[in-house]
Each structure stands twice: as structure tokens, then as C-alpha cells.
Design a protein that fits this description.
433 residues; Rossmann fold; seven-stranded parallel sheet; 15 helices; 45% helix
Length: 433
């Protein structure tokens, strides 16, 4: 692991927090969630000691075991798709509850995930167990979900948001819980030494055409989401019963157009700049559109798909840090590449990348909002091509800014642990009084 000096916070009074629940989007083969969870486990153990009992619930136990090792102090607990009763039973056994999913207060992906976090908060409140949202985000919400967030998130003892814009959105909704703004836990993620230069090793093993450097595109099929709750549906659209992807004829056509445009831009980068093209799947679910993009490329022999299904968080992070340029629709691709000052540009469809890019002050030039109407689609891809050319020809245009901002974000990220420690210490004192 990368060397980082850490000092365990010794406070015997914190021994009352012997059991901690880490509630998040665990086991989805999602690089962002993996890096967050690993970093948060390290934070908690640094504060409460290595013998603290950690419980991690998951809908996919097999995937979670790929990167989290169960032992006498860490338990992986499978939960059913209809999770309310199971989560209630898990929560009541804890001394502390941490909400560890970055996309905590939003329904972009699915309302079911949001409700799981709000239900966990409600259960902790009812049992008198401290509950903290740990470096999370907020985003678009339906009218009903805004009402739920206002009511239930206000029962949280402390909300730490990973951007100040996320915190402001919660305040605007009417959330009354104490809110502090820091940065994402993934900024503190440490990779394994043996994973350095992994991208070149992977590329060479595939016997692909060699270009001059690597350009990565981290893709998302915007038109699959949100996942909705249905008693039945097409098997091809099933995520995990009773959750199905949102699919219709119009959505399928829009997905096809999205992969068409990515393929055209990828071919253009290969042809005009002689670059190797890396199609990055930050989550296993991104593989379908990644395969479609590569199959549509004229220069598919200059493209490689790198997926979180096959590679762990450390390996995926080192791939991102090996790029000459990143074009991303994934928040954590942007975050994890920043340590090596990789120039980046984003095509975003929700508030997460907007908050990050505003924090690092590159939103006006290098954040493109994916249009909801077809009439504006052509324009967005023309702008993207222009920005890509600018950054390949003059990478210092945002490389130097990203380098400075990374140091600031890293420092803010390290504040998460300090805030958690102070909260727990103060909570013990409050209880004694």
C-alpha cells in the first residue's frame, strides 16, 4: 500500500462504540463504492481501534467478498431485496450507524436505494443510536422524495457532505440536521504498489494496436435509470427482483444514439490524435454500453474495455491515473484520476459531477450537461470534440488547476476522520452529562 503516516486516535471513552454499521451500495462491482468503503473502514478502525465490530449489509454477498475480507471483527450480512425488516433488526444491534454511500440523498439511480438509507436513519433514530451520513452527496429528487428526505434526513445526528453544493441542496430542501462540508473519501484511497503500470500490462497482453498514449472514456447509459419497482417485467430489464431498469422503445433508441456518438468520438480521437482508447466501466452495469461502443468503432483494435467486474478498486484507480486524458460521465472516475493530475472533461447527467467540477473550478469550460432533448444532442458532441482537442494539444489547460485542487480535496477528505472523531467524543460527553 502507499505509505501514509497515520496516528490512531486513542480515547478510552470511545469504547462504547463497539459495533458499527456501514450502510451503503455494497457489492455492486462499483469502483467508487469500493474505494469509499475501503477508505471508511480504515477511518473507523483508526478512530475506534482494529477490534471494532463492523457490519456491512449487501444485496450481493459474492461480489462484496471480492474486495472485503470477513473476519472476527468484520461481518458481511446478506439482506433481501425487500429490506425493511432485515435492516431494522441489523440496526438495533449497533452502537453507531454510518451511511457510507456517496449517492445518498438522490433518486437518480433508484428511489429504493434512497429509501434504504432513510429507513436506516429512521430505525437508528427510533432506537436512540447515533447516525452519521459520511461524506455523501445530494441530487435531484421527486417531490415525494424531497418530502421524505426533509423529514427523515433531519433525524440524522450529523450529515457530512462531499461538496458544499450538496450541503446547500439539503438545506434548501429543509433538512434540519447539522451539516458539514468536506470532500469524498475516495480522495484518501490508497492503491497497491504492484498495480502501478497495470494499464500498459493489460494493453500489451491483449496484443492491441499501439498508439501514442491513452485516452479514457468512463461511460454510463443514462437511459437505463432509474431502476423502478415492479412485480414483474422483461427478464432482460431485471436488475434484482423486484427492481427493473427503466426501458421503453424511446429509451432504447436514445441508448443507441448515445453509443453511436461515443463510438464516433472514440474513432475521431484515434484517427486525429493517434491515441489508444480505454472504455472504462466504473460499475459492472456499464459493460453493455461499453461493448456496444467498441463494436461500433471502426478502430476497435485501438480500444480496450476495462471493467470493475474484472479489476479491483486499486487496479481500476491505477488505470485511471495512467491516462493522458479522461472524458467521464462517472463521478469517481474524475475523483480517482486527480492524484496524477489527469486532464479531464465531463458529460454529466446529475448533480454529482457538477458539484465536484464547481469545487475544483473547471465547471464552466469542462462540464457538459447531457441534454434531455434530442435537438441539442449534436451540439453537445461538437463542443466535446473541441474541448478534447484543446486538452490533448494543451493538457496544462486544466492539469495545473487539477493538481492544486487535488491537494485541497485530499486535505478536506482527511477532515472526515477528524469530524467523526470529534462527534463521537462529544457524543460520549453529552451522554455522560
Amino acid at each position: 500500500m502507499e505509505i501514509e503516516e497515520t496516528t490512531q486516535i486513542k480515547n478510552k471513552n470511545l469504547n462504547k462504540f463497539k459495533k458499527v454499521l456501514l450502510m451503503g451500495y455494497n457489492g455492486a462491482n462499483n469502483t467508487g463504492s469500493e474505494t469509499r468503503l475501503i477508505s471508511i473502514i480504515e477511518d473507523v478502525r483508526n478512530i475506534l481501534g482494529n477490534d471494532v465490530e463492523l457490519t456491512i449489509p449487501t444485496l450481493n454477498e459474492k461480489n462484496l467478498r471480492r474486495y472485503i475480507k470477513e473476519d472476527e471483527h468484520l461481518k458481511i450480512v446478506p439482506i433481501p431485496s425487500i429490506y425493511f425488516f432485515a435492516l431494522k433488526n441489523i440496526v438495533k444491534k449497533q452502537d453507531l450507524v454510518l451511511l457510507v454511500e456517496g449517492s445518498c440523498y438522490m433518486d437518480t439511480w433508484t428511489s429504493a436505494l434512497l429509501w434504504a438509507f432513510l429507513w436506516t436513519t429512521r430505525c437508528a433514530f427510533n432506537y436512540g443510536i447515533p447516525c452519521i451520513a459520511y461524506a455523501v452527496d445530494s441530487g435531484e429528487l421527486s417531490r415525494f422524495n424531497r418530502f421524505l428526505v426533509k423529514r427523515e434526513a433531519s433525524k440524522t445526528d450529523l450529515i457530512i457532505t462531499r461538496t458544499k453544493y450538496a450541503g446547500n441542496r439539503l438545506i434548501d430542501i429543509g433538512v434540519k440536521a447539522p451539516i458539514k462540508n468536506t470532500a469524498d473519501c475516495a480522495f484518501s484511497f490508497k492503491t497497491n504498489f504492484q498495480d502501478q503500470n497495470i494499464l500498459k500490462k493489460i494493453w500489451n497482453s491483449e496484443n492491441l494496436v499501439h498508439g501514442n498514449g491513452f485516452v479514457g472514456i468512463a461511460v454510463v447509459d443514462f437511459h437505463l435509470w432509474p431502476v423502478v419497482i415492479r412485480p414483474w417485467g422483461r427478464k432482460a430489464d431485471l436488475y434484482k427482483w423486484p427492481y427493473y431498469f427503466s426501458r421503453s422503445k424511446s429509451r432504447v433508441i436514445k441508448s443507441r444514439k448515445l453509443s453511436d456518438n461515443w463510438a464516433k468520438e472514440a474513432d475521431r480521437i484515434v484517427e486525429e490524435h493517434n491515441k489508444n482508447l480505454i472504455i472504462i466501466c466504473m460499475e459492472e452495469l456499464d459493460e453493455k454500453i461499453a461493448v456496444e461502443i467498441k463494436n461500433k468503432m471502426k478502430h476497435s483494435d485501438s480500444a480496450l474495455i476495462v471493467s470493475a467486474r474484472k479489476y479491483n478498486a486499486s487496479q481500476m484507480t491505477e488505470v485511471l491515473r495512467s491516462l493522458e486524458l479522461l472524458i467521464t460521465s462517472r463521478y469517481h472516475a474524475g475523483v480517482l484520476s486527480m492524484k496524477n493530475s489527469v486532464p479531464q472533461i465531463a458529460i454529466g447527467h446529475d448533480q454529482r459531477l457538477k458539484g465536484l467540477y464547481k469545487d475544483i473550478k473547471i465547471d464552466k469550460e469542462f462540464l457538459l450537461s447531457y441534454p434531455k432533448t434530442d435537438s441539442k444532442l449534436a451540439g453537445i458532441w461538437k463542443i466535446l470534440s473541441k474541448r478534447v482537442d484543446q486538452l490533448i494539444e494543451n493538457p496544462n489547460q486544466n492539469k495545473e488547476l487539477i493538481e492544486k485542487c487535488y491537494q485541497k480535496q485530499l486535505k478536506l477528505s482527511q477532515n472526515n476522520k477528524k469530524i467523526l472523531s470529534n462527534f463521537l467524543s462529544n457524543h460520549v460527553q453529552d451522554v455522560k452529562v
